[in-house]
Specification:
3 domains, DUF559 domain-containing protein, alpha+beta, 40% helix, three-stranded antiparallel β-sheet, four-stranded mixed β-sheet, Endonuclease, Chain A
């Protein structure tokens, strides 16, 4: 029975499960007494049935096992589910923190916080999914729970942008979830939701939007999809001025570590320029440290483009520009 539990739960078991399997408390204590094992006590009433350190998945599942109602199936997602940044990190969302482990439990039940585990009692129980063997809230709810507790505004903007950019939810659905959770009165969450509705898909793009909003440059489209006259998809530049045929590309060095990635970026720029689109390329750090250089380059190209005899052959589809600041309903903060 212990073997079956260990296999099903990433080599983890609760004290309740061990006792039901016939393991006496003295045996559990003896096997966890030494630092070398063979078992380890990771959290109160949660044991790792192996030597060696736990990996991130085991730590996340241990948090769920700690929070799950004793006597229930902890993998069912019925009494405990990972949420917040830790759940988003499991999905590969960029900048989502692996810790602390926020775990939803059903109100009015309460549970003490311990060793990086934050039990969050809620009456609004979500639909759950299993990610890498770990019961988790769906990305939309996990994003809202993260935004409710994160302190760094830039991290909130980056993580929420990552959830949308990864395809886990639509910006309008995220905005609705934040409104339902009464989080739009938190400045970071409100700003992130407005930026995503306006078309930005990363923290770098959000900073670019702030920079451009402070200039007299015309309003662009964000992440518009460009097509050739025969309907073939061309590219989706970060920022695009359709009337002038000018694009801004924000290329992070992180994505150009390999020759193939760098070549893909160059080929995309060549395709844009071959269709008459003028491109300004920058990086997040240049945009952050010397934004005036970027805006001057854009101003020059936009001026040149307005007088050139040959217009670009690509057409933009999809995203329409929204004005900021986006007006959101203000509600008092409430519990989860």
């Amino acid at each position: 029975m212990i073997t079956r539990i260990a296999h099903r739960q990433l080599n983890l078991a609760t004290a309740h499960q061990l006792r039901r399997a016939g393991i006496p408390p003295a045996t559990i204590s003896g096997r966890t007494r030494r630092a070398s094992g063979p078992w380890q006590r990771l959290l109160p009433r949660v044991y790792l049935l192996q030597t060696g350190p736990p990996d991130p998945r085991q730590r996340a599942l241990a948090a769920v096992l700690y929070a799950a109602q004793p006597g229930t199936d902890p993998l069912s997602g019925g009494t405990a589910a990972l949420t917040g940044g830790a759940a988003l990190a499991l999905l590969g969302v960029r900048d989502a923190p692996r810790a602390p482990h926020d775990v939803l439990i059903r109100a009015p039940r309460s549970l003490a916080r311990t060793a990086g585990v934050r039990p969050l009692a809620t009456r609004r129980w979500p639909a759950t999914i299993t990610v890498s063997g770990i019961p988790s809230a769906r990305p939309l709810r996990a994003a809202a729970d993260f935004a409710a507790r994160a302190e760094d505004p830039d991290q909130v903007r980056s993580v929420l942008a990552g959830v949308v950019q990864s395809g886990w939810c639509h910006p309008a659905d995220l905005h609705a979830e934040l409104r339902t959770a009464r989080l739009l009165n938190r400045p970071a969450a409100r700003t992130a939701a407005a930026e995503l509705l306006a078309g930005t898909r990363s923290l770098a793009e959000a900073r670019a939007r702030e920079t451009l909003a402070a200039t007299a440059l015309p309003a662009p489209l964000w992440n518009a999809r460009l097509y050739t006259p025969d309907g073939t998809f061309l590219a989706s530049p970060d920022v695009y001025w359709p009337d002038e045929g000018v694009a801004l590309e924000i290329d992070s060095a992180e994505y150009h570590y390999t020759r193939d990635s760098w070549h893909a970026t160059l080929h995309r720029r060549l395709r844009l320029e071959a269709h008459g689109i003028l491109v300004v390329s920058t990086t997040p750090s240049i945009l952050r440290d010397t934004p005036q250089q970027v805006t001057e380059a854009l101003r020059t190209l936009l001026t040149l483009a307005s007088t050139r005899p040959t217009p670009p052959t690509a057409t933009a589809r999809g995203h329409s520009q929204l004005e900021l600041p986006f007006v959101t309903e203000q509600r008092p903060t409430a519990g989860t």
